[in-house]
Amino acid sequence: MRPPLSKHASKFGVIKLHFRKRTRTLTYEQAGGWQSTADVNGVSLHAHIHALYGLALQNLGKNILMIGCGGGTLGTMLSRAGRRVSIVEIDPVSIKLAKRYFGLPQNVACHVGDGLAFMQKKRRHYDVLIVDAFTGENIPDHMKDAAFFEAAGRCLRRNGLAMANVCLHRKSDPTADKIAAGFKERG
Prior knowledge:
Blueprint: E1 6-8, E2 15-20, E3 25-30, E4 33-38, H1 47-58, E5 63-67, H2 73-80, E6 84-89, H3 92-101, E7 109-112, H4 115-121, E8 126-131, H5 146-155, E9 156-164, H6 175-185
Parallel strand pairs: 5-6, 5-8, 6-7, 8-9
Antiparallel strand pairs: 1-2, 2-3, 3-4
């Protein structure tokens, strides 16, 4: 592996940006997790980001709340597709890097803070909620509990769409089922 283009200190762990000259791609790595990989136009090279993107565009609503930023590739792609995107990211360094290196557009509203706390203050404002928040490859525990699902239900408009990116470590990992059940229980 090539040495990182740059390392950026954060209270949540060092963020490493890897640039590969041959493929002209940029990767964002933190806590052992590869959070984003993009081409020179800021378009994600991860299949799961394209899946979230396609599903979000099927919703007719324009207002999207994203919890978690990484390189901001999903927010960039959705903004370019005409959606009004708000990102909540607990790590201010992440937002800075997404704007500087990955081309996160200026029209994407960025809020530094905890996603759960942000949602607890909102009432039915967003058409789509995308949860893509990780510490390494794990969703923070407070983003999977009852308070999280209640807050998600309050910040989504009626018939809003909620999606979560989940990394499963084995086929029997119950994380995705627990998150689906949490959303279902709160309508």
